[in-house]
Amino acid sequence: MSEGSRYDLPYLTRLQIVSRLRPGERVLDVGCGSGEIARLMREKDCTVIGLELDSEKAAKAGTYCEQVLVGDIETMPLAFEPESFDVFVLSNILEHLRDPVATLRRLVPLLRPTGRILVDLPNVAHWDVRLRLLRGRWDYEDAGILDRTHLRFYTRKTAREMLRETGFEILDEDIIPDVPLFRYKKRWAHVNYRIARLRPDLLSTEMLFVVRPRGTTASR
Question: What's the pTM value of the predicted model, to 2 decimals?
Answer without folding.
Answer: 0.91
